[in-house]
Design brief:
The chain is mostly helical and about 190 residues long. The chain has nine helices and no strands. Pfam families: TetR_N (PF00440).
Length: about 190
């Protein structure tokens, strides 16, 4: 006797999150509500019930993406035993990431640039993501006994963000490799 396991299809909230994550990354946060609703196969009412509107959905999508992206950075850091190699390993992983044909750049930078209103809830999500990434960098630098972990974290973060921006705009230039070489100088 075989048993067929049926998984329930995602509800409207989850479908909106999935559609938002896909469309905002592929086309930016300026994507229209009608396209979001069509992609998610939900009624307009669902958007307002679950997120209060498109602004709330954008913030929720960025929050979810941040959790996934921070897990990606954690996995990159787990790739070596020594703090120096863990930090340099981030750039090796970034090189793989930006070479992917689906790569469209840094979603946090793109959102911040596209959303002019400084009070938009998405800005709080992008700021929180950057703070949490910086905390990870500082932790690794402290474990490395770096002389100035705060400053070095700022420098490494700049190299990471620069890699993501340059990776979205330049073919076959490998910005992560250049950033890795500069990170090695920061690490000493």
């Amino acid at each position: 006797m075989t048993t067929t396991i049926t998984r329930p299809s995602p509800g409207p909230r989850e479908r909106l999150l999935l559609a938002g994550q896909h469309l905002f990354y592929a086309h930016g946060v300026a994507v229209g509500v009608d396209l979001l609703l069509r992609e998610a196969k939900v009624a307009r009412r669902s958007l307002y019930e679950h997120f209060g509107g498109k602004d709330g959905l954008v913030a929720a999508v960025l929050h979810r993406a941040a959790e996934e992206d921070l897990a990606w950075y954690d996995a990159a850091l787990a790739g070596a035993d020594e703090p120096r190699e863990r930090l340099l390993g981030i750039f090796d992983r970034l090189d793989e990431l930006v070479e992917n044909d689906e790569f469209r750049g840094c979603r946090y930078f793109a959102s911040d640039v596209a959303l002019e209103d400084p009070g938009h809830p998405a800005h709080a999500e992008t700021k929180a993501f950057r703070r949490r990434l910086r905390e990870r960098l500082i932790r690794e630098l402290e474990e490395l006994d770096h002389a100035d972990p705060e400053r070095a974290a700022d420098q490494l973060h700049l190299l990471i963000e620069g890699t993501l921006v340059m990776g979205a705009t330049q073919d076959d230039r490998h910005p992560a490799r250049a950033a890795r070489a500069m990170a090695a100088l920061v690490l000493g």
